[in-house]
Amino acid sequence: MHQGYDLIGDIHGCGNTLVKLLEQMGYSKKNGVYQHPKRKVVFLGDIVDRGPNIRMACHIVRDMVENGHAEIVMGNHEYNVVTYCTEAPAGMRQPFLRPHTKRNTFIVEQTVDQFANHPHDFNDFLDWFVELPLFQEFDHFRVVHACWDQAMIDEFIARYGGNQMHKGMLAESVDTSSFIYKFLDRTLRGTSLKLPDGRSMTAKDGMKRQFFRTKFWADTPKRYSDVVFQPDPLPEDIQHALLSEEEKQQLLFYGPDEKPLFIGHYWMWGIPAPIVPNIACLDYSAVKYGRLVAYRMDTEHHLQPGKFTWMRVEKSER
Q1: What pTM value is reported for the model?
Q2: What are residue 291's DSSP bridge partners?
Q3: In which band, very low, low, confident or very high, does the pLDDT at 204 lie, cut at 50, 70 and 90?
């Protein structure tokens, strides 16, 4: 029998909306676990942070995964909270693997607060997050949180023999010179280019950045505007500037003949639709009162606009 899959984008603690979306797609709770008679969910990561029902969302997701009704890949927010809460080994200059800066603390604050009265539960989830698959390849589609880089994935498999991390890799993963750091940066955060001439830009969230996120599916791009992929526009004077040959070499290309790919991460807005015929982003800013989005995947090679489904996120119902 054909196995159908329902891919769900970044939840960010919108636990009530997740329940509504599952029920809209025909999932129901049996023996405490949401399930469907013929289909299975694939979660694209970023279950935690920001929203009001993080612990609830975590339990729904883990129960589905552990009982065979869902698959999952790690998001950068699961990785962030693990490294934020993991003490650094002796010899490192900082007490935790992820520095407790004002910004880093703000990002994980809701997750830490909502688990504050459930420390054993929180530790169990931190252990679970560490070993979540970083990418998944199915017979006819692929799933990763931010970017599928085949060469890096092949190297990861050759080095580590699978698609997961373990606790012993965490300290190395924050060393910016290591392969595992570069791999996680690519897989969980995507591709980027440095702004020219040492420029920086202030994003809508108030953060100053010297890099901008880029498409990894742009065929023969010529200008910055051909590759920028983020909610914040580039400074007007460089928006249409020509890419240098060196910058073009840094770009990645996921071609139209590759398997359909599902990603989250990118804070999209509007009516969900494929980015290109074989790539869909399912992060439609749920926690910012956008949409919690799913794609109902069967055996198609080209993704269809009519197979997206979603739940609008209301302020009172996250």
Answers
A1: 0.95
A2: 284, 312
A3: confident
